[in-house]
Amino acid sequence: MNHQMHRKLLSRLLLCGVTAVLVAGCAAEPTAGSTNSKTFTVAVIPDTQNYADYTHQKNEGFAIDAGDLFVEQMRHIANNAVNNGGDIVFVASVGDVWQHQSKAMDDEHAARGIKARMDLPAGFNDYLGPKDGTARFELPKAREAYALISDSGLPFGVAPGNHDYDAMWSVEGYSPDYAAIPEPERAFVKAIGTLHVGGLDNFRSVFGADTAFFDGKPWYVASYKGGTSSAQVFSAGGYQFLHIALEMQPGDDVLHWAESVLEAHKGKPTIVSTHDYLNTRGERIANPLVDLAAADPGGNNGPQQMWEKLFSQHSQIFLVVCGHQHGQNYRVDDNAFGQAVHQVLADYQDRGQVGLDAGQPLDPMMNRPVGIGDGWFRLMQFNLGADTPYISVKTYSSHYRKYSAQETNYAKWYRAHEQPAMSDEEFYKADDFRIDLPDFHQRFSINNQESL
């Protein structure tokens, strides 16, 4: 297996993440993105790493400039912001904004004596090491894309994914549960082991609390560790909503910070974004290749722990969105108070039909199109004026300018490698469905509503 094949297979198996430090909550009411309408939309941005990947550009020999798809997606959202006559009131990003790292290991993990494996197959140490394209292309492309959201006046929050960390390496002395890994990936994971991540200086440089995106914005109400986890509020449908963006498999300190934010905004309907939470079967199980809680349990909580410690213990959390694991799924569970918590996965980074259309060769290792994303993202339209309030979950491509239900080739292009156990009909429904919220008004009573 040559170095290029190693790089491509590893990038397919790697998924996404999230992090957080408390800054003072802002009491001011937000003005950006507010709407009196009972119908409004929250845009959810899945992993954009393959758009921003500096190797997926024409000057690196790729068939298209994938970065243009990133900008195009964000421009579509900005053009449909409520301030521009649309109905989008908020943007939630689940992380893996860019692809590559800038350090071999961060100082904090190195100081703790955590070491990287040095016996990896040829090429992997080079792939996991620092890349000049990170600072040269990928971070600036992320700023360019999100500036469109910011300039539109939309409030937004970004949860860091594993690729957004400064360093990612194979942990020495730890092996994952190989039996849980399907073939043919098992042999590959046996060769590389379990990856860990550390350092978020790059993330803070783009999405830190003191950046122009967030500094002084009344809707940016709290952050942790300079913005590696953060909280925002937005007003829509007669309510003020709280959004919390959590770092990937966060530690107890981050969860305690999140609880303090919930307490400071008690009663507000709350959406949480995080990177790795559901797999494509709808289970709360981490990807074994990037299982941070297993490799470093003292510093991280896995998906089930996040549910048990935070999501199920606070009645105002009603929706959790995530990415990282390639595909889509949905589950609903009752929290400790008997109330529904809706949990939604969407990650389209493996979709490569756009590149294929432009003449990009198939990935020789996986024998399918090289993943880019094809412009697909989620639009969650709330209707709080219906007899039974609900969220209409739609999947839209800013490149094809279609919803998934309108694309006759949708299942043909994507089902086999995302959801091979589904029928075509089931696959369409997985990206176009309705979430009923029958107790929403009772759960978030008039006493908690915002006066608009």
Please state the CA-atom Rg, rounded to the nearest Å.
Answer: 20 Å
Global morphology:
globular
The total of helices stands at 15
Ranges where pLDDT stays below 50 over 5 or more residues in a row are: 1-31
Which class do the helix and strand fractions yield? alpha/beta
Total discrete domains:
1
Would you tell me which CATH topology applies? Answer: Purple Acid Phosphatase, chain A, domain 2
Give descriptors for this structure.
disordered N terminus; alpha/beta; 452 residues; seven-stranded mixed β-sheet; globular; Purple Acid Phosphatase, chain A, domain 2
Structural notes for this entry:
It is a single chain. The longest helix is centred in the first third of the chain and has 20 residues, at 132-151. The chain has helices spanning 3-13, 49-52, 66-79, 107-111, 124-128, 132-151, 185-192, 201-207, 252-264, 292-295, 303-309, 353-357, 410-418, 424-430, 440-443, and strands at residues 39-45, 88-93, 156-158, 167-170, 195-198, 220-224, 229-236, 239-245, 270-273, 317-322, 327-334, 340-347, 376-383, 390-397, 402-403, 433-436. Mean pLDDT is 90; it is low at 1-31. It has one domain (3-448): Purple Acid Phosphatase, chain A, domain 2 (4-Layer Sandwich), CATH 3.60.21. It is built from 15 helices and 16 strands. The protein is 27% helix and 20% strand. It has 452 residues and is an alpha/beta fold.
Summarize, please.
The chain is built from 15 helices and 16 strands. With 452 residues, it is of the alpha/beta class. The longest helix is centred in the N-terminal third of the chain and has 20 residues, at 132-151.
